[in-house]
Every structure is written in structure tokens, then in C-alpha cells.
Design goal:
This protein has 356 residues and is of the alpha/beta class. It is built from twelve helices and eleven strands.
């Protein structure tokens, strides 16, 4: 069992720990201290529940446990699916001191967190992410929500968890495609704010793809450290936190235009990061460097064929839009990002194929 490592997300009296390690399941970490009342609803999905649901029960020793397994996949990240969680809470007569526990990937975490934010105007919430993408990104920072036919994550709330438990052993059962999708978010952190981490990823990508534990722990820990720093500075994304959306304006448009689930979120973000780098004021060698790292992770560096008007329509629903003006997270250099509405519109049209 690897030593536990703890990172704090500093939000005053709502601060919480991210505990990272190996062997945390099966009671390796007592989470009962983060449960304010006697009962929990553990929300998972039909893929993850058979693997891990029974194993996390000892982590909640002495608590009354109810469980719910949702259908798996981004296509089910909807209000209708969230309603199932609310129905289960009502059926079990859950009170305001109940705790919702999310066991699964980013979809489970986002839906369960949103349900926790809504039920009785907010109940306690714990994240146990089982995919790399969820471990390094969606489980940290309190963004919860569901998709709408008009755009990704348009309906949601900020609702911080009481704790995040990351057992990297769950990555042993993660399909290679899902692992690679998670690496897109890992690469993002290096690209936006840590050039040393970016360089480490260039050297250690083979070890990450091979799921070497030491490499995975370092990648998860550093990603969580960087996200925790940004969230502590700007919890509700009124400023700096938007840099975490590097590549996402393009990536969300890809997911929306293709249909949710056709490309995994990380795959869409990977291609989106290359597009954002091409729109940035970068040396071509720096764009090539990012492109090479994304390719080394086995991720797409080119977007799918999408009609230009569809690109623009989808990007127009991006949450960074202000006063009907598109804003992008762009790079000044690898490891140095900024949010701007000042960009080369002709270059954007070329990137999305409007001038083809």
C-alpha cells in the first residue's frame, strides 16, 4: 500500500481534503468523519458498482447505507437521470444530515453532486472518483451539473464536497481509452500553468500509459495541487479559474455537435487544446510541442469534420461568453495561459474550416 498523500482545498470553513493513495478502498480510509448524519446514499453506475460498491462499504463503518446504480455514459448526464437520485433520497426519507457519495467517473460525480446541491437546498457530498479524468479534474472544485440538448453542463451549481478519496488502484480496471482521455486533463495543467510538469509528462508518458503506480500518483497529485490552488483563488470561476477550461470551448463544441458520448470528453478536449494553441500567439515549435505530447498520449490532435456554422453556434453557448463575445483560454507560452476576447478572428475561421 502506497503512503497516503493529502492535499487541502483551502476555502475557509468549507475547506476539504483530497486523499490520494493505493489501497484506500476496503476501509483503508475512514470517511465516516465527513458524514454529518447517520445515513449515506452511494450513487454509482452500472459499470462501476459491480467492481467497487461493495468494497467501499467499510469506509463508512457504522453508517446506514442506501445505494443507487445509474446507467453509464455521457448520454445519461441529464436532468432525468438526476431525478432518479432525488427520487431515491425521497423514498429513503433522507434528511438534511444525509450524505450523497459519488462513486464513479465524472458523469456520476457531476450528477450526484448536483443532486446533493439541490436536495433540501444542499446536503453533504463526498467524491470517490474511479477514472483518471475524474481524479484529476471533475471531482475537485465543486462544479456539478448536467447537460442540456442546447449545450454541455448548462444546468448545475457550485457545491463543494466534504472530502475526495482517490485510490489509484481503481485505474487498474480502467479501459485504455478512458485512461488516455484522462491524460488530456493532466496535460492541460502543464500547458496552462506548470512548464516543469509539462516537461515531466513529456518524459514519463510511457510510464503513465503503462499505469506505473509511482507515475500515476505523481500525475494525480500534481494535477490536484494545481487545481486546488486555482479553485482556492477563484471558487466560482469569476476570473482566473477559467484557465482550467483550456481547450474546452472547442472540446465542448465537438461533444455537442457529434452527440454526447461519441467522443469522450478528454478526446474532445485534446483536439480542442491543439485548436486553442493554434489560435494563440505561439511559436509554431511550441504548438508542435503540445501537439506531440497529446499524440504521445494516444489522443486526437485533429477535430472531427463539423460544419463551421455548427462550430460557431455551439461555441456561442460556452459559459465563458460575455456580452455575446467569445472568450478563449489561450497560451502566451507553454505553462503560461490567459483568458481573452482578443484573438485573430480570421485565424479562428481557418481553424474551424469556415474558409475551406
Amino acid at each position: 500500500m502506497a503512503a497516503q498523500q493529502t492535499i487541502s482545498v483551502d476555502l475557509g470553513d468549507r475547506s476539504y481534503p483530497i486523499v490520494i493513495g493505493s489501497g484506500l478502498l476496503d476501509g483503508g480510509l475512514d470517511l465516516s468523519d465527513f458524514v454529518p448524519g447517520p445515513s449515506c446514499l452511494i450513487v454509482s453506475n452500472e459499470t462501476v458498482a459491480p467492481l467497487y460498491l461493495h468494497r467501499i462499504l467499510p469506509n463508512f463503518d457504522g453508517k446506514k447505507i442506501t445505494t443507487l446504480a445509474l446507467p453509464d455514459g455521457e448520454a445519461h448526464k441529464t436532468v432525468a437521470t438526476m431525478q432518479k437520485i432525488l427520487d431515491q433520497l425521497v423514498a429513503s426519507r433522507a434528511n438534511r444530515d444525509t450524505t450523497v457519495v459519488a462513486l464513479g467517473g465524472g458523469v456520476v460525480g457531476d450528477i450526484a453532486g448536483f443532486a446533493a446541491a439541490c436536495y433540501m437546498r444542499g446536503v453533504a457530498f463526498i467524491q470517490i472518483p474511479t477514472t483518471l479524468l475524474a481524479q484529476v479534474d471533475s471531482s475537485v472544485g465543486g462544479k456539478t451539473g448536467v447537460n442540456h440538448p442546447g449545450g454541455k453542463n448548462l444546468i448545475g451549481a457550485f457545491h463543494q464536497p466534504r472530502a475526495v478519496m482517490i485510490d489509484i488502484d481503481t485505474l487498474n480496471t480502467l479501459p485504455d481509452r478512458e485512461l488516455k482521455a484522462g491524460l488530456a486533463e493532466v496535460i492541460k495543467y502543464g500547458a496552462i500553468c506548470d512548464i516543469d510538469f509539462f516537461a515531466w509528462l513529456e518524459k514519463n508518458m510511457p510510464a503513465l500509459l503503462a499505469k506505473e503506480p509511482a507515475a500515476l500518483v505523481h500525475a494525480v497529485r500534481r494535477s490536484c495541487e494545481l487545481k486546488a490552488q486555482v479553485v482556492a483563488e477563484d471558487e466560482r470561476e469569476s476570473g482566473r479559474r477559467a484557465i482550467l477550461n483550456f481547450g474546452h470551448t472547442f472540446g465542448h463544441a465537438i461533444e455537442h455537435c457529434l452527440g454526447y458520448g461519441e467522443w469522450l470528453h478528454g478526446e474532445a478536449v485534446a483536439a480542442g487544446m491543439v485548436m486553442a494553441a493554434e489560435l494563440s500567439d505561439l511559436n509554431e515549435s511550441d504548438v508542435d510541442r503540445l501537439r506531440a505530447l497529446i499524440a504521445a498520449a494516444g489522443l486526437p490532435v485533429l477535430p472531427p469534420a463539423i460544419v463551421a456554422d455548427d462550430w460557431l453556434r455551439a461555441m456561442g453557448m460556452d459559459k465563458k461568453v460575455q456580452q455575446e463575445q467569445l472568450r478563449f483560454v489561450l497560451l502566451r507560452a507553454p505553462g503560461d495561459s490567459h483568458i481573452t476576447s482578443s484573438y485573430d478572428e480570421n485565424r479562428l475561421r481557418q481553424i474551424i474550416g469556415a474558409d475551406a
